[in-house]
Structure formats: C-alpha cells, structure tokens
Specification:
globular
Length: about 220
Amino acid sequence: MKKTIIIFVSILLATLSANSLASGNVEAGQTKSATCMGCHGLAGNSTMPNFPKLAGQGEGYILKQLQEFKSGVRDNAIMAGVASLLSEQDMMDIAAYYSTQTISENSAKADEETIELGRKIYLGGKKDTQTTACIACHGPKGLGIPSAKFPALGAQHAEYTASQLKAFRQYSLNELTGSDDLARDNDYEGMMRSVAKGLTTVEIEALAEYIAGLH
C-alpha cells in the first residue's frame, strides 16, 4: 500500500509539473508526418512489429520523445537523424496529429498461460522484487496518463513493447556489469528502469503480449 501511495503521489507531481503544451497544428502535422509513414505506417499505425504505433499516443509524450531523440537523451540512430531535421514547431505539429488518430486493434498471440502471467504482473506487480503494477501509471486499458506524459501502451506491438522493457532493464545490467550495451534511461525519475530490472525475459515477453490485447 505504501509503495502504491508513493507512485500516485509521483504521478500527481508529474502532472502538476508538466509543461503546458504549445499548440500543435493537426493539419500541418498530417502533412509533415509523410516522412514518418515508412516506419510508422498510415496515420501512425505501423504494420512492422519493431516500429511502434504512434496513433492515439499522448501529444506530450510524442513531443518529449522527439525532443530527446534530437538532443541525444534517447539513443536511436534512425530517429536521431529524422529528428535532427525537425524544428520545434514541426515536432509539435506531428505530435498533435498522431495524438488525434485511432490506434488499430491488436491481439495477443501467446498461449493462455503466458497471457495470464502478463496479466498478473500488469495488474499486481511482483512482490518478491517490489515491482510496481503497470496499471498504476498506464491504466486498466493501457491508455496512459497524457497529462503526466505517461504513454499509452494498449494495442501496441508486443515485439516493440518487449524491446523497450529490455532496454530499460539493460540500464541496470550495465550498472552491475560495467558494460555499455544500448539501454534506455529517459524515463521519469527512473520509474521504468525500476520496474524493468525486476522482470525476467519470460515475464517481459508475457507482459508485452498481454498489453498488446488491451484496448
């Protein structure tokens, strides 16, 4: 209970401290998103599982990621090149456009036992590793908390979700081993790193499959 209260207080603080979004232009964003379609699909619904769907994602979250790809805070060679060509207004317009689109439904492809494992972690976390339940920040249907820039996850490709959880986990592995393998560390207050470090690969993949079926 105490850990849950801390999480909700963190969410509240993140919401209160979130910068007000400058107004992005949806129509302009649709035009500017033409360069994104090769990887992210028509209207942000990628058909390739290693590229995320952007449709329906929170405007603030998309803007933050684009800014951090451009600055190098989030490491991705392809997106760094794309973002380097975008102005701040371009990024706001693209974020506004994708946030108004509807994500295509997805289905979990794993067996029932795997889905149940993912469901238990999503709803209840893991007591033995003090891993917080995903529902606290991402909601029962994976819609996230846009005002706090916590992303929507529901109906996302399982392969992509799993890859990001593994990247957050890799940060902790790098600290333990001294390695410099590609990791992700642009999460708010290390919250995702804290979650991912307590998950096994089997659990991550089960969780990603469960999330894929949320909508």
